[in-house]
Structures are given as C-alpha cells and as structure tokens.
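Reproducibility note. Readers wishing to regenerate the assembly model reported in the main text can use the exact inputs given here. Chain order matters: entities are listed in the order in which they were concatenated for prediction.
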Amino acid sequence: MRNVFTLYRKELKSYFASWVGYAIIAFFAVVFGYFFYVATAIFVNQSFQSQMMGRGFPMDMHEWVIRPLMMNVSVIGLFVIPMITMRLFAEEKRSGTIELLLTSPVRDVEIVLGKWLAATTFYAGVLAVSALNLIFLFIYGNPDWKPILVAYLGLLLQGACLLAFGAFISSLTRNQIIAAGGTFAVCLLLWVFEWVTAYETSSWARVISYLSVLTHFEPFAKGVLDSKDVIYYLSTIFLGLFLTVRSLESLRWRA
Amino acid sequence: MIKVEGLTKRYGRIVAVDDISFEVQKGQIVGFLGPNGAGKTTTMRVLTCFLPPTSGRARVAGFDVFEQPLEVKRRIGYLPESPPLYPEMEVTEYLSFVGRLKGIPKRDLKRRVEEVCDRCAIGEYRDKLISKLSRGYRQRVGLAQAIIHNPDVLILDEPTAGLDPKQIIETRELIKNLAGEHTIILSTHILSEVEQTCQHVIIINKGKLAAPPDSVENLTRRLRGAESVAVEIEPRDGVPDAASAQRRLEQVAGVSRVLPRDGRDGRLLFEVESLQGRQVRAELARAVVEAGWNLTELRPVALSLEKIFLELTASEQAGGAR
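Running the prediction on these inputs yields the following structure tokens for the assembly.
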C-alpha cells in the first residue's frame, strides 16, 4: 500500500511539473464554461417564453441545464482522457525509468494502481474546476444538489474506466502520440457504440449499445443511480487495470 | 553472493546469453567484460529481475531471481546503462522517491538521502532539477539511487560510459570506495577499467564465457606466461647494427625470444621475451652496457587485458573454425 502511495504521489506531481497538466485543466475549463453558458442561456430564454405563455410552474433546471451539460461533459471527457493517460507508461518506457520501477521491490499491481489512481485523481480535479460554474446556479437559482452529485459520480466513474483503458494502451507503446491516438480511438469507439440503437433494435444492437460508456452514463446524468451502471463501470475499470498489469508483466517477456 | 548456473536468454531466435555459469563472493568487485552486444546487459537484467531467464538459474543472496523477485530486488541496487532519472524532479526529491520505492522506513529516509548525496558528491546540487545537471552529475545521481537502500549487491551497467576522463576517474574511485560493504558487478567494454577497479573478471563474448572467471592478476599471469621487456638501444655511428644487437640480446641467459620492433629516430627497439619465471631485466641491461652501447630505455611490457582479451576471443573463433 505504501508503494502505491509513493507512486501515486510521484505521478500526481508530475502532471504539474510541465504545462501539460495546466493545459488540460484550462482546455476543460474553457469548453465547460462555453457549454455551461449555452445551456443556461437557452434555459433563461425558454423560461421567459414559458412565463409569457402563462405557464404557472417553473421549468426543471436539472432537466434543462444539468443534464444536457453533463452529457456534453462526458463527451469532452473522451478528448481529455487520452491527454491524461498518454504519459503514464509510454514516457517511462521511452526514458528507461521503467527499468527502475521494475527492478524495485514493488509489485506490478502496485505500479498500475498508483498510476491509475493518480490519473483518476487528476481527472477528478479537472471535474472539480468545472463545478465552479455550477455555483452560479446555486446563487441565482435553487437546483437540487443530489442529482448533480450523482451526475458527477457518473462522470468520475466513466473517467476512471476510460483512464484504466488509457493506462493499458500507454503500456503498449513507448510513443506518447501513439498512446494518445490509440486511447482516443478506443474512447471514440466506446462512445459511438451507443449510436447503433438509433437505427437498429435487434438484440445484438442492444448488446453493442450496452458496451458503450455513454449508455451507462445517461442515467447518471438524469440523476438516477442504478446499480447496473455502477457495476458496469466497476467491472470495466477492473478489466482495464487487469489488462495493464498483464501488459506490464509481458514487458519482461518481450523486452 | 551471486550464483549463476547455466543461464540462457533468447530473444526469439537470437541467443543473447548462452549457458553462462559463474559465482561471485561477498565483497568482491567483479568486472563483466565484453565487446558491445556480448550479452552483458542481458545478464545484468536477468540478475536484477528485469528479464526472466529462458533457462538456467540465477540466485542473489540465496534467492532465486525468478521465484522470489521481491526478495532479490530488495537486496540489489541497479544502475542501468542510461541512469533512470526523472528530469522534472529535484535531486533530493528523486532520491527520496527511489528510497521510498526501495522500502526505506520513513524515519531513515532523510538521513539516507543526505548520506548518499555526500557519498556521491552531489551535495551542492541537491536542490537542482535533474534536467539541469550535466552528464557526469546525472551519472552520480544514478549511482546514488543505486546505493540508497544500502543493498548487498550493486549492479552497474557501464558506469563510466559517456563521461569525461576526470569524471571517469572520480566514478572509479567512488566504486572502489563502495567495495567491501557491497558486492559489485560492473560491466564495461573498456579493459583498463577492469584492471583498475576490479579484483575479478568475467569475460563474455557472443553470449558465452570466453574464459573461466578468474582474478585479474591470475588471468594476466596465466596468459602472459613470462615477462616481456622492451629494450631500446641508441647506435653511435651505425654501431651496433640491428642484427648484431639482436644476437647479443639473444645470448643473455633466460631469454627465449627477441623480436625486432620499429624504433624511432634511428634507435633500435626490441621486445625481449623471457623464459617462464625468469627476471631478465638486470642481465639485459648489463649485456648492453658491457658491449659499450647506449641503453636508452628498458621497460617491462605489461601484457594488457586488451591483448588478453583479443587473444581469448580470437582463440575462441579459431576453435570454432576448426
């Protein structure tokens, strides 16, 4: 456990050792801010109209602002995640520091866990920055905070799962660009799997759609916490980490 | 301390290390000598549990590298060919990270970092970013990293590669100072390095042991057989000529062979080989002086490891051809 923490600390720190970490946060903050602005602007506009048309009850802020916003953010996540994971193993392999890690009295699992936890923490930090925007909703409106929390939990779980796959892909190469590209391709695939249900309703289409990370995020965005989706994320996280550990082990055999 | 038995490592079809066996006792400095691509790094990587052997066994401090890698890793300090540094870290930060990774208890960590900084003379650079350090200092940080957990065994892969002459000397001194408390294996393709720093030498070529592991002196003595002396004579008015000088030297008791060499500025240069166990330098000097010639130089020619090495690897090849 101590080893996990040692690696975790080193890895988390390295995000802020160069401009990459700050750039990711800045990129995310700008894009989130834009979507937030658009969502609230539409909401304000619509509620004016609905008041003028004489509807007595206010519009649901979660339905109109939080949910579309969260769906957008989960897609932005697909772009941000490759940037977070590309370095994890590829850089260690390129610079040869992987030799230090693999010849230290540390288990492969501990290396993988330390790195993945650091990446997940960093992603959580990125999400936390976005939450600053939501403060305005609480200042000027009265949204329910519980579904927002659920939505953020969903974003974190979805991120953690994609980060695990990103770590795996990064462990396959020594080139960060390839790692980022590969991770992006996988993220994209896990996203577009959801689309098949749009024109196909057969059982195989449902299976493919079930594999998509977005399918499982939708309930979270609505503020619904369903054990089926949590289990999906937890099991994909496990799969991703398992593959990474195996890949790290195989490094010794392939070298 | 280290015991390797029938170690073989294949990369696909390529055999990098072929059935190597050797033993290293506690406290020895052993030079692992061989041309580039001989299999030095591969052997070291097996010993550090970075690579598993294809067949054969390797034990460090009684633990098998394949079955108990964690125990082995705890007892080994390893400096790979390029020091495994994180350029974005400061020196002390890096060393504490490695220290924690190697399992140094928290209360000892700071003290150990200070100690290795002093030991490797990087004290004044402790707050510098590693990316700002020169090649020589990076190497020292690499060495500091390898000894931070006070390992029983130190494995250094080409520790002086890429350093300037002054740094090479300093690094060698450092390694010599580490001997005694640590068992050290260092690899190199520079022969004089082995002569200067190591007590024992393991010569490896094309993945095989070129000679049984032996002490450096033994190896030199065994291969040299007898003393070899360079004699330089300055002729006056063409006296003596090369032939008569050679004849005179051949008559000295204990001389087995006289080989003419190219002398400079008209001087005559001979390489005189003596019979096994005979010291002929005094007799040679007397013979030259008694003949009334000018003796300008008389020096023993040490058969360098360089020659030994070439001889060993050449005979290996000749043996293969036969």
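We highlight two features of this model. The radius of gyration of chain B is 25 Å. Chain B touches chain A at residues 11, 45, 48-52, 70-71, 73-74, 76, 78, 80, 82, 84-89, 97-98, 100-103, 145 (CB under 8 Å).
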